[in-house]
Write a structure and sequence with these properties.
The chain is of the alpha/beta class. It is 40% helix and 16% strand. The chain contains 14 helices and 15 strands. The protein has an eleven-stranded mixed β-sheet with strand order 1-5-2-8-10-9-14-15-13-11-12, sandwiched between helices. Strand 14 and strand 15 form a beta hairpin. Helix 2 packs antiparallel against helix 3, helix 5 packs parallel to helix 6 and helix 7 runs antiparallel to helix 14. It is globular and about 55 Å long. The chain starts with a helix and ends with a helix.
Length: 420
């Protein structure tokens, strides 16, 4: 399996043909169509871009999928909703950066409708399915990105993350999801869920690929560093995992300690307070973003989320903004003592798609998926999910750090130790 850097180096050197790369990606997309990971393939556009490619750029010839809430000129702009059927008028900033780096956009990946859900089961085309077991969900909202990278359709996909939407599907599908710090990648021409919390991120097969993609898109190279102190979260809510996740988590900590890492207990701000604070910010902003739109054709769960969000008062929203700053300062203090803080990304393995068929089931699943990811959006810190060794369904390890560089270098070191 070649890395992004190796693919691009081969294209620039003339050893790898961009046309062959695109054709392989299109074939894999066709073979995995039953997953619903890809909602639109730009066959003609991708082939033309490959033929015309000038063999330059850090991502030269790399096939990429873009989440369908990100505007791409000339491609459908539907955000996964039957209520929206537009054509992209111009490329979002992240798409312009992809093209400038030499990547080839082959199409659009599935999103939970308007990115307002963490299961990846609500979209105009039905649920997205997990490559490890199509009866199971991918997580969301960047569902198609996680599934497509896991299925080998593309080595790089662009997602968005407001409460865990890059990291949750990465964890459930067994790939890497890197949510860089707030504003690292612009949300220009990305349909907003919550402007205060929205991040653009990448999903890849390895941490090295994720760091390389971010470097290509931002022009900022990571500086090498070996972590020495890793914070291990002690809040019980973050450790309320299933047996499968607990076994992978404990084994990973043991291997990291054996590799020389100093594991330090870290208590993060009160879980319930930080979780409800983030929800009180996200809700009113989401409602405002859908004001004036007819929601009659929205998916039932998204309609319900908007109804719940509309109950949050302006006073509660304003108070949450103040509380967010206080929580961020507290997390900054904790991160100043360690290289990064570790916790499971998701507290369970991929649930069955049918588990969300009832309101009660949906509420329980959403709680399990969202519990550990929301904090890093509230505080805007970089957070990465990488796969843990396991004999069963994928399990993710989440790494939260003070800077993108610390997140990249720490997670890369952890990946090396766990794969040794």
């Amino acid at each position: 399996m070649e890395s992004l850097k190796e693919i691009a180096t081969g294209v620039r050197a003339g050893r790898v043909d961009p046309v062959a790369l695109v054709e392989e990606a299109l074939q894999r997309a066709d073979e995995s169509a039953g997953l619903n990971a890809v909602v639109h393939l730009d066959v003609e556009g991708a082939r033309k871009a490959a033929v015309d490619h000038d063999r330059t750029g850090a991502l030269a010839g790399v096939p990429v999928l873009v989440k369908e809430i990100v505007e791409v000129a000339g491609l459908p702009y539907r955000c996964g909703s039957a209520a929206m059927d537009e054509i992209g008028r111009q490329d979002a900033d992240v798409v312009r950066r992809l093209r400038a780096a030499g990547a080839i956009v082959i199409g659009l990946s599935y999103t939970h409708e308007f990115a307002y859900g963490c299961t990846g089961t609500s979209n105009r085309v039905g649920p997205c399915r997990n490559p490890h077991d199509p009866a199971r969900m991918t997580g969301g909202s960047s569902a198609g990105a996680g599934a497509a990278v896991a299925a080998g359709v593309v080595p790089l996909a662009i997602g968005t993350d407001t409460a865990g939407s890059v990291r949750i599907p990465a964890a459930l599908c067994g790939v890497v999801g890197f949510k860089p710090s707030y504003g690292t990648l612009s949300t220009d021409r990305v349909f907003p869920l919550s402007q205060s919390l929205d991040h653009v991120g990448v999903l890849t097969r390895t941490v090295a690929d994720a760091a390389y993609a971010l470097e290509a898109l931002t022009g900022v190279p990571p500086a090498a560093a070996r972590p020495t102190r890793l914070g291990v979260v002690t809040n019980p809510e973050y450790l309320d995992f299933t047996a499968e996740v607990g076994a992978a988590w404990s084994a990973a900590l043991a291997r990291l300690a054996a590799a020389g890492a100093q594991l330090v207990d870290v208590e993060l701000p009160d879980w319930r307070h930080s979780f409800t604070t983030a929800a009180a910010i996200q809700g009113p902003e989401a409602v405002a973003n859908h004001t004036g739109r007819s929601t009659a054709q929205y998916q039932p769960d998204v309609q319900e989320r908007l109804r719940e969000a509309a109950q949050i008062t302006r006073a509660e929203y304003d108070a949450a903004r103040t509380e967010a700053a206080e929580i961020t300062a507290e997390v900054n203090g904790g991160l100043g003592q360690v290289d990064a803080v570790l916790m499971p990304t998701v507290l369970c393995t991929a649930p069955l798609i049918t588990d969300v068929d009832t309101p009660e089931g949906s509420k329980a699943v959403r709680s399990q998926l969202l519990k550990n990811t929301r904090l890093a959006n509230l505080t805007r810190h970089p957070a990465v999910s990488l796969p843990l060794p396991t004999d069963g369904l994928p399990v993710g390890l989440q790494v939260i750090a003070a800077t993108n560089n610390q997140a990249a270098t720490t997670t890369h070191w952890i990946e090396d130790q766990l794969s040794a």
